[in-house]
Amino acid sequence: MNVLVTGGAGYIGSHTVLCLLNEGYHVIVLDNLCNSSVEAIKRVEQLTQQSVTFIEGDVCNKQHLENVFTKHKVDCVIHFAALKAVGESALQPLKYHHNNVSGSINLLSCMAKHQVNQFIFSSSATVYGEQNPYPYIETMPLGTPSSPYGTTKMIVERVLEDNNKANVDFKAISLRYFNPIGAHPSGEIGEDPSGIPNNLLPFVAQVAVGKREKLTVFGDDYPTPDGTCLRDYLHVMDLAEGHVAALNWLKQQTTLDEVAVFNLGTGTGTSVLNIIRAFETETGKPVPYEVANRREGDLPAFWANADKAKQVLKWQAKRDINAMMQDTWRWQSNNPDGYSK
Ligand code: NAD
Ligand code: UFG
To answer: Best mutation site among 203, 214, 220, 272 for ligand 2, i.e. most ligand atoms within 8 A of its Cβ?
Structure first.
């Protein structure tokens, strides 16, 4: 079975490509490398001793897509390609809507033309918005996301629903990720943010490796046990395996009456301070920090109800916070400058 993985050179995509290859899938990666390096694909090939068909191209470019679908027989698409910086999306919303929404519509249109009907979409817990109480469960209505980035995820989920109603052959899954962290245990592939990291763990790791002086903890006056925000951190390898479980399930379904939605999370929340402590304990590296004001748009707490993925996909996260910290550190300390060294 041939799987087209858009954004497959990125953080979650590269780990998923590795798992797909290990399961015997043939993988074609389409990535414009706007936030990644082809080195990630080379390392995946080394780790798996298998080859990937890599195409440098853009989902916003209809001709690039047409070339891919004309040249390759594609059975299923896993669509990671997106811009994901929440803060930047508030400053440049049109860039995000163009890349994430128009890019997805181009892709779906090209799939329809070439009668490719299996689709797995990278959605986010942010689609639950701030109205829904946590833990988030898939039966809750879509909320109002706190950023234009989140809105793009919500819009694409809705586009998938409409496309599903109009085409009986179309089978789609929206996977709502919680907070992926960690790296492959080899330390060969991991998260390589460009510039100043937006997310907690890459920042913590860069402080520990000496690239940044200290972490800023955004707020310790939230209504949580230690005052810092709670998130559902899950190991990127668990998340990658979740995609394989989703694909294995999707291909067994003859039709889907509606888009299948699954939370991919652990079902527990961990505070920012507990992450810092766990990192220090597991790595022996101090993480100096200072507490500052809250970051706009941050919710005090959310985590997943992860039962549906367990019952239906037979998937559940199995790696603990300690493994997440150890693997983050192995990647960061082996590759202080990411893939560019
Ligand atoms: P990433 O930036 O590492 O990967 C995204 C990849 O897509 C990159 O390789 C980038 O070069 C590529 N890309 C972007 N726009 C493209 C385009 N127009 N055409 C072709 N390639 C393009 O990000 P990630 O953390 O691996 O995230 C993957 C997906 O998961 C994204 O859709 C993201 O929104 C979603 N997601 C991520 C998180 C998270 O915390 N990392 C949480 C929820 C959802
Ligand atoms: N944090 C800090 N200091 C930092 C970075 C983060 O204290 O330097 C805190 C944040 O305030 C938050 C927690 O660490 O409490 C986690 O922050 P991240 O940025 O790592 O993750 P978020 O939960 O904010 O972001 C995630 C996903 C997005 C999604 C967003 C909104 O990365 O894709 O949730 O739900 F859009």
So the answer is: 272
* Residues 129, 24 within the same domain: yes
Is residue 5 lining ligand 1, measured as CB closer than 6 Å?
A: no
Tens-digit pLDDT profile for residues 256-279: 999 999 999 999 999 999 999 999
- DSSP helix/strand/coil, 104: helix
Determine the structural domain holding residue 226 and report its residue range. 200-231+268-304+318-340
Q: State the DSSP code for 337.
A: T
pLDDT score for 126: 97
Ligand nearest to the CA of 64: 1
Asked whether the beta carbons of 70 and 110 are under 8 A apart, the reply is no
d(CA 260, CA 44): 29
Q: Are residues 102 and 245 in the same domain?
A: yes
Instruction: State whether 22 and 154 are in the same domain.
Output: yes
With cut-offs at 50, 70 and 90, classify the pLDDT of residue 150. Answer: very high
Average pLDDT, the chain: 97
Give the distance (Å) from ligand 1 centre to CA of residue 77. Answer: 14
The answer to the question of residue 195 being in a domain is no
Residue 186 lies in a domain: no
Q: Which residue has the higher pLDDT, 131 or 272?
A: 272
Cα atoms in the Cβ-side hemisphere of radius 13 Å centred on 48: 25
pTM of the model: 0.98
For residue 20, the domain's CATH number is 3.40.50.720
Whether 212 is in a domain gets the answer: yes
Tens-digit pLDDT profile for residues 64-118: 999 999 999 999 999 999 999 999 999 999 999 999 999 999 999 999 999 999 9
| Number of domains the chain contains | 2
Q: Based on the fold, state whether residues 103 and 221 are members of the same structural domain.
A: no
Determine, yes or no, domain membership for 140.
Answer: yes
Would you say 258 and 164 are in contact if contact means Cβ atoms under 8 Å apart?
yes
> How many Å apart are CA 46 and CA 29, to the nearest integer?
16
Q: What are the residue numbers of the active site?
A: 149
Ligand 1 pocket test: pick from 32, 44, 54, 80 the residue with the most ligand atoms within 8 Å of its Cβ.
80
